[in-house]
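Extended Data, panel c. Modelled sequence:
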Amino acid sequence: MKKDILKINCYLLVIFLILLSTFCESSSYLKIPAAIHLDTVMGGGVLSPETMIKKVREAGIKVAIITDKENNSLEYGLFPLRNLLKKKVQRGSINYYGADHYISEIERLNSLYPDMAILHGAETIPAYYWTGNPFSGLTVNNFHKNILVLGLEKAEDYKNLPTIGNKNTGKFTPRCLLNLWPASIIILGILGLLHKKSTIALSYNIQLSKKKRRLKPISILCLVIGIVFLINNYPFSSPQFDQYHGDNGALPYQKLINYVNSKGGLTFWSSPDIETSQYKIKPVTFNTPPYFHDLLATTGYTGFAVFAEGMKYSGKPGGIWDMALIQYINGARDKPVWAIGELDFENGNWMGETQTVIFIKEINKDQVLTALKTGKCYAVKGHPQKTKPVLENFQIWDDLTKEWIEMGETATVNKVTRIKISIEYPESDLNTLKIIREGKVIKTLFFKDTFYKTVEFDYHNPDCMTYYRIDLNSSLISNPIFVKM
């Protein structure tokens, strides 16, 4: 009898260990919290880069991505001499500080803190435009409509970013010859000054001739006007977009995305759900309405910040992000769109409030960029001094390779989709976990503290693709896993 009981206990132990390994089997990835979008004194912030990194370390974060403003200037010029009669406000930026110095400072910090990965990037302002006038009031639109740029290697890459404040990106085209029009007025003025006029008088049948060089006031005026406008038009290149001719829509942003892609970098839409859209710094009103719709109007970008200003339009089930992912699985978009958690930290006590947890093999720059590029990360937010939920596993079983597939990857499923989820959230209240497929919540689960479960869905649409992602309390958002059927 005792032998039978011992044998049963052995069997139960084996079964328990198998189940434990099924739920607790972890991939070989390290799950490292990252602070993305840190603003230092080099780009308009208040903290030195080293002080910023010390704050990151104190918060227990091993990956820091500094994205100072690439070009932080605002300019308004009076027509028709916009380049001469203008007011320009310039704050700290990468180009103002010097891209070479910016990169070397980040490299210095990496050498000081070898246990961390510290990356440089940029917060860009691809475009803005003015409405109103100096007499009734000016409004600058879309000044805070930003894209984060990561992964650029050279100072020249930063210097040539196609943004509205970057004068380096003007191009010379045949149309630029029109900017030389003041030269024709200068020539007319010179010819007028050199002209000699003859006067003929008849007196007592004697012909008298007199030649006299006369300085014509109109010639001097032509000369002055021509020189002034020629200086105004210098350097004669034509920007594709300016701030005086209204909203150019998504075109300036697409141009920036294409440029960064050509340099092997990454682009993330920053704060697309922004609600703090209008405020006034006399005499100028700043107006940046939500721009979540641009996630559909642009292509080729890497991802977007899912939590900034709340999750009102982009990341919610069935929102803009799901629309973009559906475009991808239907072949209308070449690349998937990934979600990150953006901190946007300058100073204060909220370091670590929003994090991007990155799946990497080891802590270094290349691994971090690869994880962000391929969607091997999830976004999480919460009180900086309190425990945040930890997504230990979100995987789908691949019937072809016989292995569990991670976020950002594609699994092949014959019929039943098996999803393994494990979450640690100690001392938490009742949690709501949503499993989302193509924008629809297909299952809602509730738990406290911990969650370990394999969920199955008998969903099969032959020769098609779908995806699954999870949402915990709208404060932990996974990236999708794609499924081929």
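The CA atoms of residues 382 and 388 lie 6 Å apart. This feature is highlighted in the accompanying rendering.
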